[in-house]
């Protein structure tokens, strides 16, 4: 691989070994989203609940609360933190904590900000994948150090790739969204908007990384045009990826293909651009 390639050091463990750590992290980031959902001014597209990935500290961060504070999750340690506007930080290591234990810590931090902690929305408007944490289980990170580290590397790689794509398509109107992590599916993504109108049928192309889900038990990059493309008109993709057509239609590159083929970032970027351009052409027809 070329120097500084964003896909370096991802093959230390097999991608399907990330599942346990991925699910725990998926539950943990909901606390960031809950805080924003409860106290940040709502937006029509629900982006006030989305998260930022900060590669320098391998952490997720919530949107800023009205006080200027943010909630965060340091992924490699699986540690919740809250940062104040002056740079102060309070941290909770999640190992051994149940969701009830965690809620007590979150409530205390919210109270310190001057908010009513009982205004925190515990219920989510979507279901999370099944996990013992939903039934009074505890976070377990002692044996998950390597998998959490590699999971963080996947998010860093995705952030680097998505930053390049954002630069490439920056001149398009109405434009490219910021890089966001959406807590529902836990994917890091951008949206290339092709229409000025705001409706369910507005044309767009989502590009991102899912760390794994019910469709693929491993991370995967995707390009997902909207409205959904006609399955009968899909063209052949470069060999590193394929079209997924069950439940949704998207160009997919699974992590196992990336590692097995020792794909460089430039090759993955070329695949994603190929799928994006096909999506643009198809949606313009």
Helical element count? 6
Care to count the β-strands?
Answer: 12
From the alpha-carbon coordinates, what is the Rg to the nearest angstrom?
19 Å
Order of helices and strands: HHEEEEEHHEEEEEEEHH
| Shape, principal axes of CA atoms | globular
Total count of domains: 2
Low-pLDDT segments, ≥5 res:
none
The helix content is 25-40%
How confident overall, as mean pLDDT? 93
Strand content: 15-25%
Structural class designation: alpha+beta
Distance between the termini: 38 Å
Characterize the main sheet: 7 strands, antiparallel
Short description:
This protein has 6 helices and 12 strands. The chain has 285 residues and is α+β, with helices and mostly antiparallel strands. A hairpin with a 4-residue loop joins strand 1 (52-54) and strand 2 (59-61).
Question: Please, could you describe this protein's structure?
Answer:
This protein is an alpha+beta fold and 285 residues long. The protein folds into two domains: 15-135; 156-284. Helices cover 29% and strands 19% of the residues. Strands 6, 7, 8, 9, 10, 11 and 12 form a seven-stranded antiparallel β-sheet that branches. A five-stranded antiparallel β-sheet has the order 1-2-3-4-5, with helices on one face.
